[in-house]
Design goal:
Layout: H1 2-15, H2 19-37, H3 74-79, H4 98-113, E1 144-146, H5 148-158, H6 160-181, E2 186-198, E3 207-221, E4 227-239, E5 248-261, H7 268-271, H8 273-301, H9 358-390, H10 396-431, E6 439-441, H11 447-472, H12 482-492, H13 494-497, H14 500-511, H15 520-546, H16 553-579, H17 589-623, E7 633-634, E8 637-638, H18 644-658, H19 660-681, E9 686-696, E10 712-721, H20 727-794, H21 802-847, H22 862-867
Parallel strand pairs: 1-6
Antiparallel strand pairs: 2-3, 3-4, 4-5, 5-9, 7-8, 9-10
Helix pairs in contact: 2-6, 4-5, 5-8, 6-8, 8-19, 8-21, 9-10, 9-21, 10-21, 11-17, 11-20, 12-14, 15-16, 16-17, 18-20, 19-20, 20-21
């Protein structure tokens, strides 16, 4: 029977509870702690789970307590001992694939419901050029289309950095469990069994016997610093041989101690300090986790580094600065096992992913699209130059200049493609997906700008078509049809159909100049009168501008009316001259052709000027369709429209009230202040009041529970120690005073830094908003310059004067190429401004802590909610 009991004791004490029991036990305790602290909605704990998401790439289906042995480094395995074997779990590694199912679901939803919004002023834009890129990657696979919100969700599932931050929050709760346990009743129970054989010369005498020793007790630390200890010890000897009448001797002893420090180490301020600090550290980390979620949103969406580091606050102990109070409450039953350096926990984080961002990546893709469109334009212009070279209109030198600019643009395209691919790979690292997974980022943020570009491109193409149609009217055999063809071009061409006011009024206005209304003299007189009136109004406008005034609305309207009517009158003059056939009766075919060409050039030039009115109307309509920048409202104040000082005041005040890290910094000043009392306590002498009582059972008998007053002792003791040597304590106290002053200064510095961040954000946002409007005009002017230079270049050259024609062609070529070079530059600058504004707007809301997140970790931005379509949420994969 004794042997069986010993065997059972050996099994239970050797194995204890299972790994799973301890893991589940601490998990429940930490979860309870976090639920207890999760009472403030402003820093609510969301997107938290200490175990990896089952959809994550780093998901682990193995048993957490006994995972399989990972593949080892062959050299390390060969050259070092291998004390552990794979065991039942075997050997291998695992990489989850659930995130691929999410990508497939999102891709199908995006391609099914993604709309393309078309402004009413952009009636014929059917597709955005930015989205017309090849849909397959280099391996021929269809990429997964991903929106920014989905990128955030995927990052929360798959980001190794975010999972480390979740684990950090878990680890921050562990010191609290330990410090709370230090104030709980702590039991210990130890047993020892000895089987011995002794010789006759030894004190017990010759024989065989079992010695059974048992120690049990409980300790309790009180908030006042008092320590209560109670213990029970039993010594039992069972003789297995000999002639003793009493073969079993059992003696027990009970002890009780109560110790209360009255000076050093006494009082709640000192005793509760470790618990207080760990509880506050956990609160700090909960708030920092809430801010980290917002920083992670900015990290994925716009790029940028994280604010705080991922290091654990306080480690596994109560980190309270220079004064770390230790009130030993371990198990007094036996020594503790201190692992070697190789057996200690390593909580170092991995290498952080590069900071790229969704918006930066789609900007790279947008710039690639700009370069691709520029190459397409230059290829088209090169064909035009080659055709003109065959006709003798331009020399090969000008063709070579176009080829050089095309080659440079092709080189720029290659570089832009490389930049885009590099950016996409870095973004994949941010999301934690393998680089081999094909991704395509949806251009929801960039689409409005490309809609605008597409409208300008369409206008430019239709203007070119109108010019090409004008050139086809150069038919000497059908010169009498010129008026009908011009009327059709000015009323039915695609260019005019996009200008409803011009299309509606041009028939009546053109008819007012025809022969049925005015003869040749009437046309000349009307043109002379309009020019005189125009000159007077222009002089009046110049004079008014010098005086800081403007024309009246009636005068401005009249000037615009004259400027529109003059080209019509000049066109009518040119058409009448052309219809009269001045080349008829010319002595030679060459003279005949030269006269006809001169007359046609005049018709074409005036017709192009009339069509320019339709083009200008189209430009005005497109100009009104520019997407406005998202507003920046803080407590009802528009920071973009407000003056700087009021904007500073409201934004900085909001940041001071809301910043979670600033709340932590303020609380840490109080932490430093509390340390003053803790370290001052260590300067005191020692004066402890203690009470001790012990009792034992009669020796040499088998009565282990027979406690009597005659064998009981009571002691009251006073321990005193004068503070004669307090150099270390003195130094620590002085350091705590300095630490407190540093904490105060750190709070001031933090407030100043936050104010500086916010003020800088506001200034940059206002500058970006103004530059956005300026750059809109620059893009429109670039398109107009392309249109104008193209119209000038395509205009028929006058006959004769080969030297002058060559010089003119060279000048026109240079002008055209400069216009085509400026266009992609202005487009790229506008795109960069647009994306920079989006990123900085997010950063401002982050800096003032006004970036509420939904349960997915996505910013609840009212502006985006109105402008960006919502994609269905995928089902949860278990």
């Amino acid at each position: 029977m004794v042997r069986l009991l010993l065997l059972l004791a050996l099994i239970f004490t050797g194995s204890g509870c299972t790994r799973q029991f301890y893991r589940n036990n601490v998990d429940r305790e930490v979860d309870g702690l976090l639920r207890q602290k999760d009472v403030f909605p402003f820093w609510k704990i969301e997107n938290y789970h200490v175990y990896p998401d089952p959809n994550a790439r780093f998901a682990d289906p193995a048993k957490p307590d006994r995972p399989p042995m990972p593949p080892d480094d062959p050299a390390a395995k060969l050259l070092a001992p291998n004390p552990q074997k794979p065991g039942h779990a075997g050997e291998g590694s695992w990489e989850g694939t659930g995130y691929l199912d999410l990508l497939r679901y999102w891709d199908a939803s995006n391609r099914a419901v993604l709309p393309i919004t078309v402004d009413a002023n952009l009636p014929s834009v059917k597709q955005v050029q930015y989205l017309d890129e090849p849909k397959k990657n280099d391996s021929g696979e269809n990429p997964f289309l991903l929106t920014m919100d989905q990128s955030i969700e995927l990052g929360l599932v798959n980001s190794r950095e975010f999972q480390s931050r979740r684990e950090q929050l878990y680890l921050s709760a562990l010191p609290v469990t330990l410090e709370r346990f230090s104030f709980a009743a702590q039991f210990y129970d130890a047993h020892q069994g000895i089987y011995e054989r002794t010789g006759a010369q030894l004190p017990p005498g010759q024989g065989y016997r079992w010695r059974l020793n048992s120690d049990a007790g409980v300790s309790k630390l009180l908030p006042s610093g008092a320590l209560l200890l109670a213990s029970f010890a039993n010594r039992t000897v069972i003789n297995l041989s000999g002639t003793m009448a009493n073969k079993t001797i059992s003696v027990s002893t009970v002890n009780f101690d109560a110790i209360q420090p009255l000076l050093q180490g006494g009082g709640k301020a000192v005793t509760l300090e470790p618990l207080t600090q760990t509880e506050r550290n956990l609160l700090y980390d909960i708030r920092q986790y809430a801010r980290y979620r917002k920083e992670f949103y900015q990290y994925i969406s716009g790029g940028g580094d994280f604010g705080p580091s991922l290091s654990l606050i306080g480690g596994f102990g109560a980190n309270i600065g220079a004064g770390q109070v230790s009130l030993g409450s371990g198990n007094p039953a036996g020594p503790q096992i201190t692992p070697s350096a190789s057996g200690r926990i390593n909580l170092s984080t991995g290498i952080a992913a590069p900071s790229e961002g969704y918006l930066t990546t789609i900007l790279r893709r947008a710039l690639l699209a700009v370069e691709r469109a520029n190459v397409t334009r230059l290829e088209k212009i090169l064909k035009l130059f080659e055709a003109y070279e065959e006709g003798g209109r331009v020399p090969s030198l000008q063709v070579g200049q176009v080829q050089l600019q095309l080659l440079q643009s092709q080189s720029n395209l290659l570089q832009a493609d490389q930049n885009m691919r590099d950016s996409l790979d870095r973004f994949k690292l941010q999301l934690g997906v393998p680089l081999t997974v094909p991704l395509e980022l949806d251009g929801d943020y960039i689409r409005p700008i490309f809609l605008q570009y597409q409208a300008y491109e369409e206008l430019l193409e239709q203007f070119e078509q109108a010019l090409a149609a004008l050139e086809r009217f150069d038919d000497i055999a059908e010169f009498a049809q010129i008026r009908a063809r011009l009327r059709s071009l000015m009323t039915d061409s695609p260019l005019v159909r996009g200008a409803p006011r011009f299309q509606k009024t041009i028939p009546t206005r053109f008819a007012a100049w025809t022969t049925s209304v005015l003869d040749d003299k009437g046309v000349r007189d009307k043109l002379f009168s309009l020019r005189q009136e125009r000159n007077k109004l222009l002089e009046l406008r110049d004079k008014q501008e010098e005086e800081g005034k403007t024309l009246s609305p009636q005068e401005s309207a009249r000037l615009q009316e004259i400027l529109s009517d003059l080209p019509l009158g000049e066109l009518e003059q040119a058409v009448r001259r052309y219809e009269s056939g001045p080349w008829q009766g010319a002595p030679t075919e060459k003279i005949k052709r030269d006269v006809q060409q001169a007359a046609f050039r005049e018709v074409r030039a005036t017709a192009a000027e009339v069509l320019g009115e339709a083009s200008n109307e189209r430009f005005s309509r497109i100009r009104s369709s520019w997407t406005k920048l998202p507003p920046v409202h803080v407590n009802g104040v528009d920071l973009l429209e407000s003056d700087l000082e009021p904007a500073y005041e409201i934004a900085v005040k909001t940041a001071y009230e809301n910043r979670l890290d600033l709340m932590n910094t303020r609380a840490q000043v109080v932490d430093s202040w509390r340390q003053l009392a803790v370290f001052a306590n260590s300067l005191l002498g020692v004066f402890n009041v203690g009470y001790h009582v012990d009792s034992s059972t009669p020796p040499g008998r088998g009565t282990p529970l027979l406690f009597e007053q005659e064998r009981t002792r009571h002691q009251l003791f006073l321990n005193a120690e004068l503070p004669l040597v307090r150099v270390a304590e003195r130094n620590s106290y002085r350091a705590s005073l300095i630490a407190y002053q540093r904490a105060r200064r750190n709070l001031m510095s933090t407030e100043d830094q936050i104010a500086n961040q916010v003020r800088t954000d506001i200034r940059q946002l206002q500058v970006l908003a103004k530059n956005y409007k300026i750059q809109q005009q620059a893009v429109e002017l670039a398109y107009q310059q392309v249109e104008s230079s193209l119209e000038t270049f395509r205009a028929p050259q006058p006959p004769g004067g080969d030297g002058n024609n060559a010089a003119s062609a060279a000048a026109l070529t240079q002008q055209l190429l400069q216009a085509y070079a400026r266009l992609p530059q202005t487009q790229s600058q506008l795109l960069t401004l647009w994306i920079n504004y989006q990123v900085l707007r997010q950063q401002l809301y982050l800096d003032i802590e006004m970036m509420p997140l939904d349960s997915r970790g996505v910013w609840i931005d009212e502006y985006r909610a109105r402008t960006i379509p919502q994609i269905p949420v995928p089902p949860v994969v278990k």
